[in-house]
Design a protein that fits this description.
Keywords: Membrane, Transmembrane, Transmembrane helix. The chain has two domains: 58 residues; 67 residues. The chain starts with a helix and ends with a helix. The chain is mostly helical and 130 residues long. The chain is 75% helix and 0% strand. The protein is built from eight helices and no strands.
Length: 130
């Protein structure tokens, strides 16, 4: 039986070798594959750059460094950090980390009735409710 298999395979060597030599899929889709690799590389680079910037700011021994350290601990996004900094500009400018201690700061913005009130409610829920 083993001999029959090899005999049948020997009769089709041209077809088998053509199948293995056909690299048309890679040749036809090289642009798509290259674009996917490029987009993935850019995304990974930006992700690593953002994390490096937050770590650098968090390592500073300043009130703003403490703020960024708390942002990193709570795994807040760049948008969350921007909204929290906007809230601290008016109420806790010298100690921006107070926004993590005093829920009244975010509550003031959540009840303000502005366009960002809903986002401040979500942030307050994220920071102060388990």
């Amino acid at each position: 039986m083993n001999f029959d298999f090899w005999l049948i395979l020997a009769g089709h060597t041209d077809e088998v070798s053509r199948a293995f030599r056909n690299r048309g899929i890679l040749q036809e889709n090289w642009l798509l594959i290259s674009a996917t690799i490029a987009i993935g590389s850019v995304w990974l680079g930006l992700y690593l750059w953002e994390n490096l910037q937050i770590q650098r700011k968090a390592s500073a021994d300043t009130p703003l460094g403490l703020f960024y350290d708390l942002c990193k601990t709570h795994r807040l996004s760049r948008t969350d950090i921007t909204y929290l900094l906007k809230a601290t500009d008016e109420h806790a400018q010298e100690q921006p980390a107070l926004v993590f201690v005093d829920p009244g700061i975010l509550h003031h913005y959540a009840t303000d009735g502005g366009t960002d009130a809903r986002y401040y409610e979500d942030l307050a829920r994220k920071l102060f409710q388990p």
